[in-house]
Description:
Layout: H1 7-33, E1 38-43, E2 46-51, H2 57-65, E3 69-73, E4 79-82, H3 84-90, H4 108-121, E5 126-132, E6 140-151, E7 154-163, H5 165-233, E8 237-242, E9 247-250, H6 252-259, E10 275-278, H7 291-298, E11 302-311, E12 317-327, E13 333-342, H8 344-384, H9 390-419, E14 427-431, H10 432-438, H11 441-444, E15 450-455, E16 460-464, H12 465-481, E17 488-496, E18 499-505, H13 539-549, E19 554-559, E20 563-571
Parallel strand pairs: 15-17
Antiparallel strand pairs: 1-2, 3-4, 3-7, 5-6, 6-7, 8-9, 8-13, 10-11, 11-12, 12-13, 14-16, 17-18, 18-20, 19-20
Helix pairs in contact: 8-9, 9-13, 12-13
The chain binds adenosine-5'-diphosphate.
Adenosine-5'-diphosphate (ADP) binds near residues 506, 525, 539 and 541.
Amino acid sequence: MKSSKSYEELLAELNEVRIQLEESNDTLEAIRSGEVDALVVKNKDGHQVYSLKSADHTYRIFIEQMTEGAVTLNKDNLILYSNSQFATMLGLPLEKVIGQQFVKFIIPEYQNTFRALILRAWDQNIKAELLLRSSTSNGLPVLISMKTLDLDEGVSMSMILTDLSSQKETEKILVQKNEQLEEAQKIARLLNSNLEATVKERTRELEITLSDKTRIEEDLRNNQERLTRILETMAEGVVIVDLEGRLTYANPMAQKILCGSKDEKLTTIFGCDQWKNLKIDGSDLPAEEHPIMVMMARGKEVYDYEIAVQPKNAERFYISLNAAPLRDRYGNLVGGIGTFMDVTNRRKISQQKDEFISIASHELKTPLTSLKASMQLLSRIVSSNPGSEKIPEFLDKANKNLLKILYLTEDLMNVSKIQHGQLPLNKTKFNLSTLINDCCNHVKADSSYNFIFEGDEEVEVCADYPRIDQVVVNLVNNAVKYAPDSKTIKLKVARENGMVKTSVQDFGIGIPPEKLPHLFGRYYRVDPSGIQFSGLGLGLYISAQIIERHKGTIGVDSVLGQGSTFWFTLPTA
Ligand code: ADP
C-alpha cells in the first residue's frame, strides 16, 4: 500500500495543525482575557477575521465588569463575542459560548420568537424578554436589548442581556404580595362592609337607645319638675329622713310649719333650740316615739298620728303626721317619708264642739229642770188648791223657761241655717226708732232698768224687721247679762256716712282688748267656762251674719271694767 504523503510531510502537517490549534487556543485565551480585538471565524466562505471597529482595551474591561451579559452576533447569529457575565448567566464556561449559535441558548419555546425578533432587530432596535437556557435554573428570564453594530468586517448585532430573574422574582413576590394584598383588601373590604353594617346597626340601635334615653331623661326631668312643684306648693309639710332619722329633705311647707318661715332651714325632725316636739298631753316626746321613727320600727305606715310642737316664742300647735317607709329596690328599709299638717284648728274645733255640746246641754237642762219643777208644783197646786194665787206666778216662771228653751233652740236652728246659706231676708221699709221702742218689752217690763233712747227718730231703713229685731234684742240681752251691777242701758240711732248706726251701750264688765277680734266668731265666749255667765256663744255670731247680709257692719267698743258699746250700721232706705 502506497502512501501519498511521506512521514515528514505528515509530521509537518501535524505540526501545522498543532500550531493552528495552539494559535486557536491562544486566540481564544486572548479573546477571553480581552487581549485581542480581532477574531478569525470559519464560515462557509472559509476563515474570516472579525475585529471590533472601536474596541479598545478599556472598553472591553468595562464590558467585562458589567452585570449584564454582553454578546455580539454575526449575520448568521453566531456569537462573535460574549462577556463572561453572559456565560455565567448560562452557567457555561465562556469557551463553550463563543462561536455558538445564539438561538441554542434560548429555551425551545422561545426560539421561534427569538428568530422573529432578531430578523427585525437587523433593521431596528429591539427590546424583548426571553428565557435563556441555564444550567442553574430552568429558564433564566432576561431582557434582551438588540442593536446593530458597525464593525470593520461588516454589521454585527450587539445584545445586552439583563438578568431579570431577581426582578421577576421580585415581580412574582410583588404579584404574590399584590394577590395577598388584594385578598387582604377583599377581606378588609368584607370586614369593612360588615363593620359598616354593624356600625350602622349599632348606630341605629344607639340612636334609638339615645332617643329613648333622651325621652326617658325628659320624662324623668318633667316628672321631677312636677314632683318638685307639687312638693313646693303642697299645703302639707313633707320630710324625708334616713334610717337614723337624719333629715335629707324638707319641703317649704315643712319649714314653714316647724320653723315659722319657708326660708328658715329645717335641719331635724326631732326639735332644736327654736322648737321641740311634745306628746299631746304636753310631756316631752322622745325621738324613738316620733311617728316617723315609730313607723320605721314597725316597718309599716302610720296615719294621723298627732303630736304637739312647742315653738320657743309662740303658741303651742298640733300636727298630724302620716309616715311611710322608703325602701330600696330589694325591699330593704332605707328611710322614711313623713307628711304632716297643722291640725291646731281642727283640734280647737273639735274641742269647741265638745265644749259646745256640754254647754248646750247644760243651757237646755237649766230651763228644762226649772220648767219641770214649775209644772210639778203647778199640777200639785192645781189638784190641791185650784184657786191658789200662786198659779199665775208658776205659770209665768214656766213660760219664761219655755221662752229660754225656745230662744236657745232658735239660735241653734239659726246657726244651722246660716251654715247652709239658708237665712232668707224679707226686707221692708220701716222706722228704726219704732223698732227699738217696741222691742225688749221683757226687759223694759222690769222697772229697775233705765232705758235711755237718743237720736234720730225719723230715720228709715229697708231691712228684715224680725231679723233686725233679733239683733237688737240680742245686744240688749247681753247688755243686761254682762252688766249685772248696772241698770242703765243706752240706745242710740244716728246717721253716719250714708248709713244708720244703732248702738247699745252698757256699763258692765267690759271686754279685754285681745278678745275683741274674736267676739263675733261662732261659739266664742270670753269666759268659756261659763261659770259666771251662761250662754252658747252664738248670739253675736248670728247678729253679725244678719248685719252682713244687710250689707252693714257690726262692731264693739269696750273698756274692761267700764262697759261696752255694741253697734251695727244699715244702709238707709
Ligand atoms: P253668749 O252671750 O251666749 O255667750 P254671745 O255671742 O251673745 O254669746 O256673746 C259672746 C261673748 O261675748 C259672751 O260670752 C261674752 O263673753 C261677750 N259679751 C257679749 N256681750 C257682752 C257685753 N255686753 N259685755 C261684756 N261681754 C259681752
